[in-house]
Design brief:
This protein is α+β, with helices and mostly antiparallel strands. The chain has 15 helices and 12 strands. The strands form 4 sheets. It has a 5-stranded mixed β-sheet, with helices on both faces. A 3-stranded antiparallel β-sheet has the order 1-3-2. It is globular.
Length: about 375
């Protein structure tokens, strides 16, 4: 597979290996995997970035180089990198501040096997009891003819180059948002089209979550409920939506929380029922609303979830128990409808402001104040 970032990969390999570059690229499953994972490099900030799996490789190869094994033998005797060190390093990298442990523990290996089922060597090796990790050196050292080539430093350079491009595209996205924010009063149609364009299945998960939050926050903004302990002393309370943290945070399956109703919202792009019901289990089967990055109808999405639950559990009572925990399914068409309603209520500028504010926090361009972290 060749895409717009592939020549950059080849360029790095030619710099390091000269005429052997093409052979190394074609015969290395790890380089082929990096090629697949960097397809979004030149597609702008809205395309999926795949930092988690790339960074799982990055921190292990970085440790490999740090220990000097790219220049010497003996890696088979190495005690392994500590999980805590790898995890901390992962979060120091650009866009990595809220990454979880899934890629290091299993997701990267799972995806690699999916792409390369014929390759026996899995990239990440670990001992669960000691929490020690290794990169599989068999994927770093290639034999071409009579020569051996170690691609460790090239792997780091390739990922660094990809991240640099994504940083530039995200910075450009923020600048575009700023321009739209300033134009929201003068050219409403342009701003509306821009925001609607961010509600698409191929949009980066972080941006989709941010835009979903901004829309739903102002959709519910003017809705009120009445609360009180006495019928004669009921108080009118506006609905307020709070963002619980940055995207991809380890927050127990809660992305947004609504006061005073106590509604939970989880943003997802998956239709894997195991993930949905894991989120439900995390919060003790408390009702949760799912915001799904899909243009499929609510009926279709709900039907797929139910069929998935039936396949997984097979007992009607258990299926019903989990399905009853899904309070609402919100898809892309519903988000667009709610956006238009919020715009009619005069909240276009506020929605754009919220997208800018949350994007700056998410992409480490500007940290928010404490009150902004709570969605205020």
């Amino acid at each position: 597979m060749e895409h717009e970032f592939t020549p950059r990969i080849i360029e790095i390999l030619k710099k390091n290996f000269g005429k052997a570059a093409i052979d190394i690229f074609e015969k290395s499953p790890l380089l082929q995997y990096l090629n697949l994972k960097t397809v979004s490099a030149t597609r702008g900030s809205k395309a999926r970035s795949s930092f988690a799996n790339l960074y799982a490789i990055y921190v292990l190869v970085e440790d490999y180089i740090k220990q000097g094994y790219h220049k010497k033998q003996g890696y088979t005797k190495y005690e392994g990198a500590r999980f805590s060190d790898l995890f901390e390093r992962q979060r120091e990298l650009p866009f990595g501040s809220k990454l979880q442990n899934h890629a290091l523990n299993h997701r990267m290996n799972q995806e690699f096997r999916k792409f390369f089922p014929q390759v026996d060597a899995q990239p990440i090796l670990r001992v669960v009891d000691t929490k020690r990790y290794w990169i599989n050196e068999k994927l770093l050292v290639l034999t071409i003819g009579r020569r051996k080539f170690n691609i460790a430093t090239s792997v780091i350079e390739i990922i660094d180059a990809y991240v640099a491009i994504k940083q530039e595209s995200f910075t450009g996205f923020i600048q575009t948002c700023e321009q739209m924010k300033n134009a929201s009063k003068a050219n409403r149609t342009t701003v509306e089209k821009f925001i609607l364009g961010l509600l698409a299945p191929n949009v980066d998960a972080r941006i989709f979550e941010i835009v979903s939050y901004a829309i739903l926050k102002y959709y519910y903004h003017d809705q009120t409920v009445y609360f009180g302990f006495d019928l004669d002393e009921l108080e009118e309370s506006p609905l307020k939506l709070y963002k619980t943290g940055r995207t991809n945070a380890n927050d127990g399956g809660i992305d947004f929380v609504m006061k005073p109703l106590g509604r939970f919202f989880q943003v997802t792009e998956s239709l894997d029922v195991r993930k949905y019901f894991l989120d439900i289990d995390k919060i003790e089967r408390y009702p949760i609303s799912f915001v799904i990055k899909s243009t499929g109808s609510i009926r279709t999405l709900t039907s797929k979830l139910r069929k998935g639950a039936e396949r997984q559990y097979g007992i009607d009572a258990i299926v019903k128990k989990y399905m009853d925990c899904i309070e609402e399914v919100i898809n892309i068409p519903v988000l667009k409808e709610r956006f238009q309603l919020a715009v009619k209520q005069g909240y276009l500028t506020d929605i754009m402001d919220e997208i800018v504010r949350q994007s700056k926090v998410e992409f480490n361009i500007e940290e928010s104040d404490e009150d902004e972290d709570n969605g205020e």
